[in-house]
Amino acid sequence: MTTTTPLVNGQVIGLAHYASRAALEAVLARTGTTFNQSVALRAVSDNGGTVERDWLVGRLTGALKIEEATARETVDEMTALEQLAEPTPGQVSLTDSGRELFEAIRAGGNEIAARLYAGIPAEDLATAGRVLTLITERADAEPAGA
Asked: Which of 10, 22, 83, 133 could join 98 in a cystine, given CB atoms 3.0 to 4.6 angstroms apart?
């Protein structure tokens, strides 16, 4: 019996997402971090370590497709946990413990990615990246409730 390779579609993308996210959740559980918090840590780190609070809330709502109140709660939790500090009104910065936490999560995520992507040709990864970016852009442009 021959197994055919499926064309990319929402189910294939979703299964890959949930399978890889489950592996990441194990890393997050060891650090006591939620997925939303990990996304916030990456967003702040990738943008120099200090960002506008409203920008971070917008990034979380847009990237995770969550309500603004949930995104604000995530940022508030992280401030209470001293992963983020407020150097000036309206800004949040990674604290030393937030930076250390993010580095631990990044290292764990990189180890998982190395295993998952091992042996896949760079050209295939580049093609997949282009296709998934285009699908994300199109899905983000869809009107709500379409």
From this structure: 83
